[in-house]
Every structure is written in structure tokens, then in C-alpha cells.
Specification:
This protein is an alpha/beta fold. The chain has two domains: about 160 residues, Aspartate Aminotransferase, domain 1 (Alpha-Beta Complex), CATH 3.90.1150; about 250 residues, Aspartate Aminotransferase, domain 2, CATH 3.40.640.10. It has 13 helices and 16 strands. The strands form three sheets. A seven-stranded mixed beta sheet has the order 4-10-9-8-7-5-6, sandwiched between helices. The protein is globular, with a radius of gyration of 22 Å. Bound molecules: pyridoxal-5'-phosphate. The site of pyridoxal-5'-phosphate (PLP) has 17 residues, from helix 4.
Amino acid sequence: MISPSPSHPITLPTADAAAVLGRDAQVIAGVEKLRFFPLAVDSGEGSYLVEPGGRRLLDLSASWTAAGLGYGNPEIARAIADAAASPAGVSGLSAISTDAVALAERLLDLTRMPSGSRVYLGNAGTDANEAALQACRRATGRPRVIAFIGGYHGGMGLARAVSQVLNATAPADPHVTYLPYPDPVRPRTGDATETLTQDLSALERNLDIGDVACIIMEPIQSDGGLIIPVDGFLRGVRDAATRHSVPLIVDEVKVGLGRTGAMQAYAHEGIGPDIVTYGKSLGAGLPLSAAVGPASILDCGTASTLLTSAANPICARAGLTMLNILDREDLSSHAADVGAQLTGELAQGVAALGLEAVVGDVRGRGLTIGIDIVDAGDLGRRAPYRARKAAYRAWQLGAVVFYVGGNVLEVTPPLTLSEREAHEGASILLQAIAEADTVTDEEIAPFAGW
Ligand SMILES: Cc1ncc(COP(=O)(O)O)c(C=O)c1O
């Protein structure tokens, strides 16, 4: 393998960062830790996170996509400060604010849902999916939820139970069924078209049973390994759901709102869901999520989620401002352009640096990009240990990137990423992959990641 000459010198975190990490180990609960390297952050600016002591890191994760606009956007900061200075209460449970209503109207507009649709406003992707899933069960009177192998929809409750990546051996809920999600890069049968046909037949057979409350699907599986399904899958699921009158929930929490180069990731196959869920980037840094769907489902079971901070007016103002910026700056087109540049530079760099033995595939849509790390150029030989080390090396070199599906570096920078930053990101990632072996087992041992 040819190694690039190191262009990004390693600058290890300062003593200040180490001190924060030491305190973290003493006080922050392990139940909310998913750590890939010793990252401590003091502030953020644009596409960069700044460690205590001042080291700047290009954030190629955008805080798992939650920082869609990057960090410190002045318009968002002003909107939040204004809303917080004279808040319309801080709960939407028993009083509604103008901003929350305006946000709901805006989301109905954006999704072009039929009139009579409703919006649930919540705090996180998890509760938006939970609210949608539970409402489907109540509205249909049917128990079973169909979800997909490799899917992730949330960390608690039914949203967790339908997340196959967290329930590898069996669903955590007896009425959840996981079905295959066709991966064109590693088609189960060896052929993408045949895999698609088989997977849609499996879905059809399950729907025929007649006890299905809803189907929940990611338009691109992210935590499952950045899998862009075989062309025709989203359309096939949509058609099957319609034929059986089963509501289809499309989870856009991670890749929605411009990230794939279209406002909705499901639009790449021209489909429309019955319910769509959003989270992460929607709140532009504040906790905010939404589920948008028919009143016949989302009005079912009044007061059944009961989160005090749902529809929080300050978060709603942030969300409204975020959607204004997304539109005004046409950030989905920007994501398409700069994403194509970044994917192109990565693919060219893999060839130019002779990294084909360790990079099996570079794939993406807009700024949702996966770098599939393997052994001996063989897609059948995933290399999770190398992905872990490459992510760690990238952090040493000055970038934040995490891995998903065990062996895929997931590149989801802020939608505002500039061309120069995309170039810097590609260069750091290529160097990190080439130099992954310089990271020792001892260094990564404390960082289990996924
Ligand atoms: C597709 C998808 N849905 C839902 C969630 C849950 O979102 P949150 O962690 O904000 O609850 C995630 C989080 O990673 C996600 O990737």
C-alpha cells in the first residue's frame, strides 16, 4: 500500500482536554456514552469543534447530523436568544405557542401532506418515532410492526425495539418483525435485482397475515452501515403498504432535511410516506423532533405521550429559523454539489493512493457518505478494527468521523460545508485510512464505539 506523505501533523489534545476527560470519567453516566476517541469539546464554529486548549477539529459527523447548520450560526443564536428572553412558556403540553403552530404549519407545507394532517412536536428522534409507532398501533388496533434488518430508530421503548441494530438476536418486542433491507453493495443472493425481488416478496408475505400496524423504514440506513437500498426498494415498500392499507413511517431523522441533496431522502424514489419523522438537524442545536401524518392516526389517543417539554416554544423558534435558512440558502442543492465533490475526491484519492485493498466502496447521496473499510479489497471481509483505528487516526489528524455498521466510516458533515473544507476532509480521511495501522490496540481499547 502506498502511504501519502503526512500533510496533517498530529496535534494531540492538550492537558486542558485531558483534564476534562478525566472529570468526565468520574461523573458522566456510562449509559449515555458512545465513545470512539477521547474527544472533549469547548466550543464550535462553523464546521469545526474546538477542544479545550484550542485544537480545531473538522467535524465530519456534524454531531451525528444534529448540527446540520454547523456550529454557532448567528441567525440561530439570535433566534434562540430572542425566544429565550421572553419565552411563550417552555412547554407545549397545556398551552400552545405561535411558534409551535407556525412550525407545524411549515412542516405540513414542506412534506406536502394532505390537508387534515397533524404534526407531533417532540424532543428527539426517539420520541417522534415512538409517538408515531404507538399511534399506528392504537389507530389500527393491530399489534405488529415491520422494521428492517440494519435499521435504527431510537434508543428507548418501542423505537428501540424496532431498531434491529440494537437487537441482534431477537426483537425486544414480541410483535416486531425484522425483514431484509436490500443492499446493492453486498446483495444477499449475489444479485441486486434478485435480492430486491426476494425482499419485497418477504414483505408481501408478512403483510398478507393482516396483523400489521405499520412499517417503519429508513430511506438510507445509516447506523446499519450507510446502506443506500437497491433502486426500487422504497417504491416497492410504498406500493405494498398501499395495497395492504398499512401506514408507512419513513424515518428521516438522520438523513432528512436536505442532507441527501433533496429536502426529503425519500424523494429520491418519488414516494410519499404516510408518516414522516424528523429530529437531529431540525432543532439546529436544540432538542426538537417531529412526526407528520394523518389526523386519523396522530390524533388517536389524546395525551398519550405527555412529555412536558414537547413543542417547547424556544426549540420551535430554532426549528422555524433552521427551516428558513435551509430554504433561503438552498442547502439541499449545496449538499448535492459539495457532497459530489467530497465523494469524488475520496474515490479518486483511494485510487491515487492505492488504498483499494482497504477501501471496498465509497458511496453516498449528497452529504451522506460511507467509506467501507475491508481487508484485501474483499467486500466479504469487513474490517471493523481498521475502521476503529482510522476513526481514531482521523481524530489525531484533526477531524471527527465515526463508524457505523462496524466497518463503515460515516461522513455526514454540516450542510454548510465549504469546498475548501470538503477538500480538507477528504485529505484527512485518506491519510487516516492509510495510516490506520499506526494506531495501537491499546490506544483504542477504551473506546468501544458501537
Ligand atoms: C434514523 C434514526 N432515527 C432515529 C434516531 C434517534 O434519534 P435520537 O437519538 O435523537 O433520539 C436516530 C439516531 O441516531 C437515527 O439515526
